[in-house]
Amino acid sequence: MSDKELFASFAEVLALSQAMKDDLPGLLDPETGFAPRMRQLCMEHIQELEEAHASPKEIEVLRLEEHTWSLLQALLPARKTEFLPKPTAQQLIAINPYTPPSTLAQAVLNSSRLLEELVVVREWLQDTAPTPPIPEATTGYWKFTKHNVLQGMRSGNTYRDGLVKELDPDAPNREEGRALASDDASYEKGLLQALYACVRAGRLEDAVDFCRRAHQPWRASSILGSRLFAWPAISTESKDDDAMAEDDAEFWHGNRRRKLWKKTCVHAALNNTLSDQERLLYAALAPSPLTATILKSACRTWEDHLWVQISIICEEKESLELSRLSGSFWEGGEPEEVDQEEWEEEVIETLDTLQDVAVLEGPKADHAFHFSQLHIILNRTDQLLKAFDGTLSDEQFRKDSFEYAQLTRFFAHLCLFLQLIDIPTPPIETQHILEAYLQVLEQAEQRPLIAMYAGALGDNAVERYALFLVSLELNADVGERRLALTRANEHGLDMYRVAVVTAERTIEKAFDLLPEPKGPLPSIIALPQPPTVDELFLLRSIEWTTFHEETYEVALEQTNVILRYFLGVGRVQAALSLLEMLPSGLADISEPETRATEYLHYRQFFVIWEQLERVVEQRGQGDLPLSKDERAAWLSQYRNSIDQAHEQVTTLLTTEWLVPNETEVKLADRRTRELLRIRQLYIPEIIFRLHFILINSRQWIPENLKRALKLADIVADSRYKLYDDFVNPDGPARLGKYLRAVKEAFVAGLEKGGSDPFRPVLAAL
């Protein structure tokens, strides 16, 4: 699967888990739970990357993630289960002094949650260890040495080639200066390395099988000595009938003298006459502080160091507790008190040293996943999430790197997993991590997944998803926007609230990009001009609140805001485009009255504006060659259009069109300033346009001259205070311009002659 498919697969697992958030056993199921599913996805992706010969580093990091999910599954189910006290080893002995050591060891394990978890971690380290190599097949025990020894005996030269004279297992160590044949020595070294790898991987059965195939049954017995003595027939523990046949329960197995065996293993590991490989094998079979140096010398990876430390801790704790028992037929000594808290502190201190241990191969100790694994083992998930949030803040990873994307994905899902199983996470750091993953999804163009992860942000979910919708800008059409908004509802977000916040943030962002409507009044461009990218961004912000009737009231408010901007900067065509995008239902809203009235005033203005432009267009048709009937029809239509425009403009001028009330004027807020600016820009403009329409049509409609002069009376009427709209300190002296136009109209009234200069004025009365 591709990286994009992996994002989707992780999201699918999360969605399934969220659907069963109240089913804790289901979430922690070892096969179908959250962590096993995540691990399986990692394994599948690793296989595909290996087949595609992808970058080894990518595969390595992905394998670390797989192992971490495996660790979470190993530890968290027990942590979410109440730790119920069980009979102690001493209590079992009081009931049955013949209780076998295997049962006593299990009781020791059950008495300590930390020890129990460390054993689980040891098993996890064994399960994730490299597969042991298989030794070469051999047809006999030290066959090359045996051949040379026999040859020497026949020839009487028993010291041939410095080889051992005898073939017992101790011969190479007993006979100083003598060794095995080179081929046998090489095979022995490879076998011991394979056996150590089996112990490291917890595959003792394989180690025993390797020994038997190598014709070394004595070594197989040495390995089997690690098993605790068990005798189900005399044990007080319950027996699993399916796991053990009745006949098997009657027989004992394991090592009755394990304490002696362990002492011998330690002695062998410390024996300098043995080969390094043999010493390492015995040290691994019986780990202890005495053999720690030998074990650490073989550590190549960070996981090796962790395995060594935990193996020593578990083995020593088990041996110590068994040695304290009294009254046991098999084990025990002098009982002594052990401070459990002190032991736990020592364990934690020991494991803490692994944070900076030097490694020879693989990722370093401070790698994010090793750091994560150690903190998960120590049950410090809060500190882990805070630490990773710190790396995000410090920008320790390149955001375009594979590792950054993978780590943010892992930690985001870790936060969500912990929340699903009711393990608290630090809220601020969790939010930052989810934010980082949302950015990764955005960069990967995983739009369908954003709502799901934004929904996990709690109180900030709506705001964060809204910011994502804003980031779509103009790259998504109306259908894609509607679908993206619908996804908010699918993932538990308040879709209507998301729509409102998205529109608000879009408008805010657009206003940051666009010039502020202030300073000199702009010229009004009559010719249609397409909106700029930033203007289109502002225009389309209204889509978010017009998808559903539930947000129409907010849409009405935002429409007024956008219209004020476009009209304030002289972009009439852009404002008209906005009206064409709006649903008809907005006009039916009557509350709040101020907002509804403002919107109706804008619609009134655009009706007039389009009517004035229609009149100008019809005027041009009159210059075409027309027949008598065509001209009569044109003139009738032209006259009706002018009459309609005159009536509409007069109505607008004699009503309080976009006039702020007294309270708003006193506040002098942004809206009031914008309304005053619009009046100063468009009241004079429509007066001028109507005036010149009336003057220029007088040759066909003589009474329009009278209308033009009466229009001046309306402008001068103190009831309407239209003259205030002609005065703007930052704008042109348009009142003087209008007075000159009225003067020209007065002069035009004398065009037909006559000696009375007041005739045009009297005609207008």
From TrEMBL:
GO terms for biological process: mRNA export from nucleus; post-transcriptional tethering of RNA polymerase II gene DNA at nuclear periphery; protein import into nucleus. Pfam families: Nup84_Nup100. The keyword Protein transport applies. Keywords: Membrane, mRNA transport, Nuclear pore complex, Nucleus, Protein transport, Translocation, Transport. It is found in: Nucleus, Nuclear pore complex; Nucleus membrane. GO terms for molecular function: structural constituent of nuclear pore. Its main location: nucleus. InterPro entries: Nup84/Nup107. One of its GO terms (cellular component) is nuclear membrane. Transmembrane segments: none annotated. Belongs to the nucleoporin Nup84/Nup107 family. Functions as a component of the nuclear pore complex (NPC). Part of the nuclear pore complex (NPC). This is Nuclear pore complex protein. It comes from Ephemerocybe angulata.
